Amino acid sequence: MEARALDPITLEVVRNRLDAIAQEMQDALVRSGYSNIIKEGHDCSAALFDCNGEVAAQATALPAQLGCLPSAVRRVLQQFKPESMSDGDVFILNDPYDGGTHLPDIALIAPVFHEASVVAFTACIAHHQDIGGKTPGSLPTDSTEIFQEGLRIPLVKLYDKGTPNAVVHAFIERNVRIPNIVLGDLGAQLAALNVGKARLITLFEQHGTAQLIAYMSELLNRAEILTRRAIEQIRPGSYSFEDYLDSDGIDADRLVRIRVTVTVRSSDLHIDFNGSDAQVRGPINADKAAVMSAVYFVAKAIGDPTAPNNGGCYRPITVNLPEGSIVNPRPPAAVNGRTITMKRIADTILGALVPAMPQKIPAAPSGLVRVLVFGGNDPASGRTFVCTDFSTGGTGGHPQGDGVDSLETDIANTMNMPAESLELHYPLRVHRYVLIRDSGGAGTHRGGLGVEREIELLRGEATVTLREDRHRTKAWGLYGGEPPPFAHAEIRHLDGSKTVIPSKGVFRLLAGERIHCWATGGAGYGDALDRDPGVVVQDVVDDKVSMESAADRYGVVGIDRGRRIYDEAGTKARRQAMRARRSPISWTYDRGTRE
Amino acid sequence: MIEIGVDIGGTFTDIVLLRDGEQLHRTKVPSTKADPIAGVRQGVEKILAATQVSPADVSRFVHGSTVAINALLQQKGSVTGLLMTRGFEDTLEIGRQKRSRMYDLFLRPETPTFMAPRHRRFGISERVAADGTIVLPLAEGEVHETCECLVDELGATAISVCYLFSFRNPLHEMRTREIITGMYPNVQVSLSCEVDPTFREYERCVVTTLDAYLQGAVGDYLERLGHALHVLGFRANLQVMQSRGGITTADTVARRPVSLLLSGLAAGVVGSQFVGVRAGCNEVISLDMGGTSCDIALISAGKALVANESRVAGLPLRAQMIDVNTIGAGGGSIAWLDDAGGLRVGPQSAGADPGPACYSRGGHEPTVTDASLLLGYLNPANFADGELSLDVDSAKKAIARIGERLGLDPVRTAAGIHRIVNSKMADEVRRVSVQRGYDPRNFSLLVLGGAGPLHGGAVALELGMPRVLVPEAPGVLSAFGLLVANIEHDQSETFAARTDELDPGSLEDTLERLNARGKEKMRRDGVPVDKVEIHEYADMRYVGQSYELTVALSKEDRLQRAVAAFHTLHRTLYGHSDPGRIVEFVNLRTVHVHRLPPPPLRSGDVSVARGARASRSAYFESLNKYVDTPVHDRACLRPGTVVVGPAIVEQADTTLVVYPGQTARVLPEGSIMLEVEPHGG
C-alpha cells in the first residue's frame, strides 16, 4: 500500500481521534446497558482494531479485559478472511478454549468497511449477568468442568449482513436465567459497535484508507518504542517471586501457587510462569487471554503512561505459560473464577519487579475483588433474579503516600453497587458498608483500609456465590511495612448463630439470613516506627487506627483525641525500645510469615 | 428602567449597565481576590459616576459569582458534619471504589472526604425500605447526642443529612432537621431528600454534603454583598445567576448554595445564547478559550443544554447545570515531545506565571501562544490591551528546540502545534454534540476568550461548521448574559412508574405538586403568575436500564407522545431503539420561566469598508507560506463591512484570525460573522 510520508502532526491528531472513538463506544455501552453489572459495575470494555487484528485504541475501561479482545479478534481472523466478510456482519464468541475468556464475558466483533473492503474492526466485551450453568450468575466456585459453567458460544455470526441470526439468539435465550437482560445487554454491545463504526468510517473518509492505515500502524510503533524505553530503565536481570491463592474452591486446604521469573534484557521483558502449580480441579484456572490481561496491565503500569493506548505496548513482552498449569489449563478445566487468579498474577509480577525497580513498586494491595452473586426467585414478584455485588479492599502503601481505602487496583476497576440500587431491584437489604479500623498494614506509609459489607436476604431463598481471597495468605508489605490482617466472611442464621465460610463457595441463604464479609486492607510500605506521629494521631482521630495499634504498631503513646496531641517524649522512648527489641529491617517482603 | 450586571472573573470584574433596554455601558476594574466585594463596589461606583445614574434608580442588580466554585476548589467551606443511616458512615469516603488513573501504581484518594472527614461523619439508627416504609424508627436521642458532639465539640456550622431511601420517604430527614434547628438555630442543614431526591446514595451524598459545605461561604458572601449595595444606596433586590442558566433572588440561592456552583460559567453561556439568537443563529456551540482551558457548551433552539449530572472538580454532581465541558487546551498549553518523538500539546499549562516563553517572565516551554506569535497572528507590541509586549525571538527559540527533534523548522512546528490544539478542541466539540445526537455541521461556532477568535476559524473548518460568530465584546459577554437571562426555577421529584401500568392521575398530581413549588418560588421573586411559562419534562428509560434520557412532556396526549419521543431519542443517541420494550418514568421535572424582554437591537449605521490600518506577515498552512496580511482595528469596522481572509482583526481583549478562503462580515448589531468555506484556509 502506497502512502504519502507520515506527518507527525496528523499522527497526533489521529491518535486523539481514535481514543475519543473508543471512549464513545464505551459510554454508549454503559449508558444503554440493562444489567447492574454493566450499568453500575461497568464490567465491559470497547476497543478498535486495525485490519491485522492489533489493538488500535481502547477505552479507559477494565484492564481485566485488555487481553481478551485481542484474543477474540485473532480468533475471528483465523477463521474468516476479510474478503469473505460483509458490512453488517457481527461475530460473537465466549469460549475460553476458543478465543474467549470466561463464559460470562461475551465478545462482539464487527468489521468496518470503507471503499468496499475491511479497514478495521470494532469490538467490545461485556460481562453478562448470567450465561446459564449450575449457579445463578454463572460464577460457580465449585465447578470442576467448563460444562458446568454455562453456555459455550463458538465463533459464529450473531448478525449476517445486518440480519439477526435467529438461531443463535434462540439458543442464548433458552440457556440463560434472565434472557431479557442478557439480550438487552447484547443490544447495548451492538450500540457500541455501531457508534464506533460510524465514527471510524468518517475518519477513513477524511484521511483516505491507505493513509489512515499507515498512521494507525505508526501509532503502534510509537507505543512499542515508548514501552521499550521504559523497560530499558529497569535494572536488567532475572527476578523470581511467588504468591498464593487461598484455595481453588474445591480442595479447601491447599494453597495454590503462582510463580514467575521476570527477565529484563535490554528492552525486552520475558515472563516465565514455570514453577506455578499444575491446573486445579476448581474454577480458578486462568485461560491464556486472562493471563495476558494481567501481563498487559503490568506492561502499561510500568511503561510510559503517555504511550498511545494500543497493542504496540505489548510487543516487547513475551511469556511462557506451561501447558496444563494454572495459567494455561487443558480443557475441560473450569475457569470462571480466574479473575482472582489474574489479580494474584499481577501481584506476583509486580512483586518480582520490586528489586528491579526500587522505589517504583507499591506494597501489595488487598489482593481481592470480592464478588457476591445472588440468584433466586422473588416470591413477591414471582420473577427470577440474578445480581452481582462487588466490593474491594485497600491499596498498598507506596514511597509517596498511604494506600487508599477501598479502591480497585490492577486488573480490576469495577464500581460497587449502590445499596439503593440493589434494594430497589432485588429482595436484599444492605445493613453495613463501612471501613474496617486497623485493616491496613502498618508502615511509614500505611496500607489503605478494607471494607465490611453485610447483606440480608428479605424474601424466599437464594443461592449465593462468594468469591474472594486472602483468608489464608496475606498481602506483602515492603521494606518493613506490615501485611494487613486476613479477610474473612460468615453467614448469620435466623437463630443468631454464625457459620464462618471460606473465601470461595456456593451457599444457600434463607429469608432473614445475612452474609457478612470483611475485605482486608492493603499492606504497608516502610518501617511503621518511622511514620510521622502526627499522622498516626490523625488516623486515631478518624478511628482508622485504634489507640492500641498506635501504641503497639507505631509506638505512638499518650494520644488525646480531643486535643489531637500525643506524648512526644514517651513516644520517642517507646519507639527506641521497640527498635532495640527487634532485629534491624533487612528483609524486603513481609507476608506475615516471618518469625 | 436601569439594570446592572456584575460578573467577577479571575482577572477583571466586569460591569454592564443597561438603560431602558437600549443603551449599554460597560466598564471593568481589576478583581480583588482577597475580598471580591471591594472590586464590585469600585466597579459599580465607577459605572454610576460615568453614567450619572443614582443607585436608587436601578431597578435590577444581577450578579454572577464564583464564590461557590472557589470555596470548593480551595477547600474552604464550612466545618461540616454528615449524618448517614447507621452502617453507611463511610459512603462519602468509599465512593464507587473506581479509580480514574487506571495504570498509576501510586494511587491517591479520589473522594471528597475533605468536606466531612471520618471523625465528623456519624451513623444514626433509622431505616427506610426501598418502598418507603419505615423499618426502623429514627433514634431521636442519637440525633441529639451526635449533634451536640458535632457542634459543641467539633465546631460544625453546617450539617448534611443523607439517609437511605429518603427520596421515597423524607420523614426521618425532616425530623432530623427539626431536631437540629431546635437545638442550634444557626447551624445550616442540607437534606438529601430536598437537594437531590434520586437513588444512588454516594452521588446523592456528595451533592448534599457539598450544599452544606458551601452554606457558610455563600450565605456570608451574599449577605455582605447585599449589605454593601444597600450602603451604596441600592434599593433593588440582589439577583444571582444559577448553574442552570436562570436568575433567581439571593435569598432563594442562599437556601440551595450548590445551585450557584457554575454561576459565572452559566452567565457566559447565556450571553452567548443571546448573541447567537440576535445574529439569527439558534444553533450555536460556544467555545471559550482562555489561558489554561477551553469551555465548550451547546445551545440548541436558542437554549443552552442543561445537564442533570456533571463532573465538577472531579466530583460527580447531580444538580442541574449548564452543560459546559472543559478541556485543558488554552493559550498557555505547553507543547512537548514524548520519548518516541511524538508532538503533544497540553494538558500542562504555563499559566499566566511564568506564562509562555514570549512573555519573557522566565517561561521557556513552547506554548500555543508562542506558536500564534511566531505564525504572525498576534501583535507583539499590543497584547492583552497593551499590558504585555511579546518577544518573538523567545517564542521562536522555544519552538525551534522541539522542532529540531521533530525534523521540522520552527514555523512548521508552530503550525503543527496549532493543528493539534485545534483538533483537540474539535474532538471535544464532537463529543458534546455528536454524542448528544447533534450534528455540529448544523451549528455556528461562537468564539470567546482571549484565544477563541484566533482558533475558531480553524476549528470550524475541521468540523465542517459553516459559520463562526464573534461577539462585539467577548470580554463582557458574561456580565451582559446576566441581564438577558430569564428568571428560572426548576424542581424535580422521583416518579417511578412503568408506562404500561401508570395511573394517569398520579402523573398529573405529581406535576401539579412540582408546579405549585415553582409558583411559590416565582411569587417570592415577585413575578406575577400570568407571566410564567411552565415546561414539563420526564426522565425515562427502558425497564431494566439505569441511565435515563430526558424528554419534554406535551400538554396533550402526554403519555403516548413521551413514549414515542423516548424511542426516537434512544435511537438518535445509541443507534437502536426497541419499541417492543416497556418504557418507565424515573423523575419528573418542571421548569418555570419568566422571560425578560430582550434589549432591542441597536441600530448600527451601515458604512463602507475602510482599508486596513496596517499589515504584517502571517503564515497560513493552506498557503504553505507567510503572506502579507492586512490587520484591521475592530473599533473601526462598521456594520456591513466585509473582510476577506487572510486577515487579522485586533481588539483590546482578543485577536480574530480570518483564514484564507474565509470571509468576515460585521453584522448590524456589532458581532462579526465568519463564513467558513469547506476545504479552504
The helix tally of chain B amounts to 16
Report the count of strand segments of chain A: 22
Strand content of chain B: 25-35%
| Subunit arrangement of the protein | heterodimer
User: In total, how many beta strands of chain B?
Assistant: 35
Biggest sheet character of chain B: 9 strands, mixed
Using the CA coordinates, give the radius of gyration of chain B. 26 Å
Low-confidence stretches of chain B: 603-609
How big is the Rg of chain A?
Answer: 25 Å
Q: Structural class from helices and strands of chain A?
A: alpha+beta
Secondary-structure content class of chain B: alpha+beta
Interface with most residues: A-B, 94 and 67 residues
Flag low-confidence runs of chain A: none
Shape field of chain A: globular
Helical content of chain A (DSSP H or I, runs of 4+): 25-40%
Overall domain count of chain B: 3
